[in-house]
Amino acid sequence: MSDSKRFDNYIGGEWVAGATYSSNINPSDLSDVVGQYAQADVAQVNAAIDAARAAFPAWSTSGIQARSDSLDKVGSEILARREALGNLLAREEGKTLPEAIGEVTRAGNIFKFFAGECLRLSGDYLPSVRPGVNVEVTREPLGVIGLITPWNFPIAIPAWKIAPALAYGNCVVIKPADLVPGCAWAIAEIISRSGFPAGVFNLVMGSGRVVGDVIVKSRKVDGVSFTGSVGVGRQIAVDCIARQAKVQLEMGGKNPQVILDDADLKQAVELSVQSAFYSTGQRCTASSRFIVTDGIHDKFVEAMAERMRSIKVGHALKSGIDIGPVVSKAQLDQDMSYVAIGQQEGARLVSGGELVTCDTEGYFLAPTLFADSTAQMRISKEEIFGPVANIVRVADYEAALAMANDTEFGLSAGIATSSLKYANHFKRHSQAGMVMVNLPTAGVDYHVPFGGRKGSSYGSREQGRYAQEFYTVVKTSYVGS
Q1: pLDDT at res. 4
Q2: Positions marked catalytic
Q3: How far apart are the C-alpha atoms of 176 and 166, rounded to whole Å?
């Protein structure tokens, strides 16, 4: 199946042909071309930024009801088309169809949530310490926002950046991941028909070296929200801070899943499989290291090996498949390199580690689990971002907590236990932005804050009402009688 249709950039309310085009390839079937997507050049990126800057004065002071109505319309159409958009997502990124439809549903709900937030804007009215003076504390839009999104959630992450940016009165220039531009283009096409004035929203597709670099360094862009790799994120922070632009970063993770002796074994195994291997392990919240106490360790290893034998790997659109392909050849090569590293370091390969042959040519990898590993091994320290995980044995809860926190990252952390004492202690002392008790480390809601600590995140939280911290600025006004 192939579609040679061209998909253009969206700049200043118009569809604009790219300087060149790039093929969007289905990782489940390398013969399937999803489409040809525009690659913007420097001039087109600057044109998008200029369009956003020109639209900002009117949009930032526009009526909140019209703003809410437009966002709600976007959300409603996404939800109405969830199956078709889910099919597109599964084709271009490789999530299984049920997971892809779930992600599309989340994106639609995000737009609807922020349609409501338009009508819930609030501030403070306070008496001054000086007689006859009152104080008003209000929030105003930040300005032109550059959004740079990753490939692993090609519709949900664009949604959770675009929706609050527009809800709070900002104008947007978005660069989706060059590997999976299709879902972002679909959002842009819906937005183009949903009542937003020209220039308020702009889509420029292409490489980070061209499109991303212009967005990050432009003095006409007031803030940049980025989700992606640690190295790129840190450079973006340097570039933004150099020109005093606001910056928000979501980067890597090496999320621990602690399994205590008193855990329900069946529950612990299932949440661990979900954490590490579903979505092909390509989630920043995925757990790739299981920290397991002595009393349950051997039973856990055996039960995990048995459970993993039932996991079905295959074409993302095929019914009954649990795990689709790795997203690209480069990512597959990286995953396989870590399989080799784990073996070279002396870890025991419990399951997987080999390529999977399917009816179509794609990037299929069996979910892989190592045991007898140590905290010093690279597979225990470095983010792999694929269906590869390892088990480390520890003596007790105190050792497990210390090991869980012994990482440069701090996005998500989980614990499996029947002890309220340990659960409460872990919630307080885990050095992560999000803590899961008897749940997978991956899987978050759209109406509450998302983000981490240490090397995982920088800046204010994403999602929910906390999104206003990045997308608005606070103004304090003093009024005398």
Answers
A1: 74
A2: 250, 284
A3: 17
End-to-end CA distance of the chain: 72
Q: Max alpha carbon distance in the chain (Å)?
A: 79
Element (H, E) at 224: strand 223-227
Architecture of domain 6-251+456-480: 3-Layer(aba) Sandwich (3.40)
Q: Using one digit for the tens of pLDDT, what is the confidence trace for 2-46?
A: 557 999 999 999 999 999 999 999 999 999 999 999 999 999 999
The residue to which tokens 């992450």 are assigned:
157
Mean pLDDT of 351-376: 97
Question: Do 6-251+456-480 and 255-437 agree at the fold level?
Answer: no
Strands 33-39 and 20-25 turn out to be antiparallel
Report the C-alpha gap between 321 and 47 in whole angstroms: 44
Q: Are 279 and 257 in contact (CB under 8 A)?
A: no
* Strands annotated E in 269-346: 287-293
Q: In CATH, what is the architecture of 255-437?
A: 3-Layer(aba) Sandwich (3.40)
Nearest to 19 by CA among 3, 42, 35, 49: 42
Ramachandran angles phi, psi of 185, nearest 5°: -65, -40
State the average pLDDT over residues 454-474: 96
Enumerate helices (H) and strands (E) in the chain, giving the number of each: 15, 23
Yes or no: say if 199 and 52 are a contact pair by the CB < 8 Å rule: yes
E-only strand ranges, 228-285 = 246-250, 255-259
CA separation for the pair 34, 24 (Å, rounded) = 5
pLDDT in tens, 256-313: 999 999 999 999 999 999 999 999 999 999 999 999 999 999 999 999 999 999 999 9
Q: Give the type of residue at 411.
A: L
pTM for the predicted model, two decimal places: 0.96
Whether residue 147 contacts residue 157, with contact meaning beta carbons closer than 8 Å, is answered with no
Q: Are strands 14-16 and 20-25 parallel, antiparallel or unpaired?
A: unpaired
The domain ranges of the chain are: 6-251+456-480, 255-437
Torsion angle in degrees (nearest 10) through CA of 51, 54, 56, 57: -170
